[in-house]
């Protein structure tokens, strides 16, 4: 009890100082309950490019990237948003305006007198998130302010609209939605399928503009030595490949959606094995992934990050910073997060976590992954 009282006093005393921080940091991706202190916006580059999910290259200039930095900073200062919420906001702004502050002089001639990056024409929509005054998002003056738009998108107790229209934090269970579905829940777009195409771009922007972030998400974590071998992530004979990488019908929503991993169905508590030698960069619960482990590897001279998802807390057997060997027992198959039954969702990100995933099964096969037996898997975890 004494320790609790001391902790509470420290938090009260620290509260007024929080407003003095010019650029807040984003939270650990495993939690979504407080402001972040582990991620800050660094230098804004003059230009940046990344590929959409369908292979189109998006080129952004410094002004667009500055707007992205504003979204990140506002999200970092907003209790409950975290890294996942910031990613959703970047995804929405990329889709709605390509990160441009758009005036709308047909609907609101006065909007052209505010700083802007061009003229839009979608109904009476304005700004980064194409918010509409007639829908109650704010006045023209307010919606031509990038910080106001970001605050309105995140919403919640500190948002400007008191939950109507709903911001991200006003949507119950948003953490369990796929990022594109969460963006659509806020935007209520007539074209909900657009958002998922921009997720690799949003991931890349977040990694590029920030520093000192969790290694599992930035692609800037510990460098692992070259792996000695590559193995399949479940013991031979224990799993069935039930859902492949690529476009599919989402089992929850019935909508067409992109699946960034491969799903290997297996009995609960089946050992999950590290696919290569490496260093654990994240090991905790994270939104739709449920229990998530990410490991940094070097394979054939290239940095690679592997994701292992849907474990329960009791099924995570490593911690961030641990060094693991190929075939080591790192966790147990579960069904936490957005899952319809026990399975391993595995993703492979060549170049690191800030880069798009590739087909995990194809990648493993191409790199000569070998099957381990149950007995070998058990001994590897010792």
TrEMBL record:
Protein name: M23 family metallopeptidase
Xref: InterPro entries: Cell_wall_metabolism_enzyme (IPR050570), Dup_hybrid_motif (IPR011055), M23ase_b-sheet_dom (IPR016047)
UniProt cross-references to Pfam families, sorted A to Z: Peptidase_M23 (PF01551)
Annotated source species: Cryobacterium zhongshanensis
Source taxon at top rank: Bacteria
Molecular-function annotations in GO: metalloendopeptidase activity
Record-annotated M23ase beta-sheet core domain positions: 258-352
UniProt cross-references to SUPFAM superfamilies, sorted A to Z: Duplicated hybrid motif
Lineage per the UniProt record: Bacteria, Bacillati, Actinomycetota, Actinomycetes, Micrococcales
């Amino acid at each position: 009890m004494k320790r609790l009282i001391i902790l509470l006093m420290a938090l009260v005393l620290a509260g007024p100082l929080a407003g003095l921080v010019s650029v807040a940091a984003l939270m650990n991706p495993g939690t979504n309950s407080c402001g972040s202190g582990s991620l800050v916006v660094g230098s804004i580059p003059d230009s940046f490019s990344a590929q959409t999910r369908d292979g189109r290259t998006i080129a952004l200039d410094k002004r667009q990237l500055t707007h992205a930095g504003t979204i990140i900073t506002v999200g970092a200062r907003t209790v409950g948003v975290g890294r996942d919420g910031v990613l959703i906001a970047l995804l929405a702004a990329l889709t709605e305006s390509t990160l441009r502050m758009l005036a709308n002089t047909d609907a609101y001639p006065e909007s052209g007198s505010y700083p802007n990056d061009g003229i839009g024409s979608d109904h009476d929509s304005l700004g980064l998130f194409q918010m509409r005054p007639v829908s109650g998002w704010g006045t023209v003056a307010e919606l031509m302010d990038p910080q106001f738009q970001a605050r309105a998108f995140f919403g919640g107790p500190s948002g400007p609209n008191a939950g109507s229209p709903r911001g991200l934090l006003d949507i119950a269970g948003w953490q369990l939605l796929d990022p594109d579905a969460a963006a659509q829940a806020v935007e209520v777009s007539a074209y909900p399928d657009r958002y998922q195409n921009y997720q690799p771009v949003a991931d890349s922007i977040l990694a590029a503009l920030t520093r000192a972030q969790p290694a599992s998400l930035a692609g800037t974590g510990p460098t692992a030595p070259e792996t000695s071998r590559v193995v399949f992530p479940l013991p031979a004979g224990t799993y069935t490949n039930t859902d492949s990488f690529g476009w599919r019908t989402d089992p929850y929503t019935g909508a067409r959606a992109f699946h960034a991993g491969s799903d290997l169905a297996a009995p609960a508590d089946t050992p999950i094995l590290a696919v290569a030698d490496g260093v654990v960069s994240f090991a905790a619960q994270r939104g739709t992934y449920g229990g998530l482990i990410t490991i940094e590897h070097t394979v054939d001279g290239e940095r690679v990050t592997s994701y292992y998802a849907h474990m329960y807390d009791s099924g995570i057997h490593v911690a961030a910073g641990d060094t693991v060997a190929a075939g080591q027992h790192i966790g147990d198959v579960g069904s936490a997060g957005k899952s319809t039954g026990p399975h391993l969702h595995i993703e492979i990100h060549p170049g690191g976590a800030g880069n798009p995933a590739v087909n995990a099964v194809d990648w493993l096969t191409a790199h000569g992954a070998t099957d381990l037996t149950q007995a070998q898997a058990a001994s590897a975890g010792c």
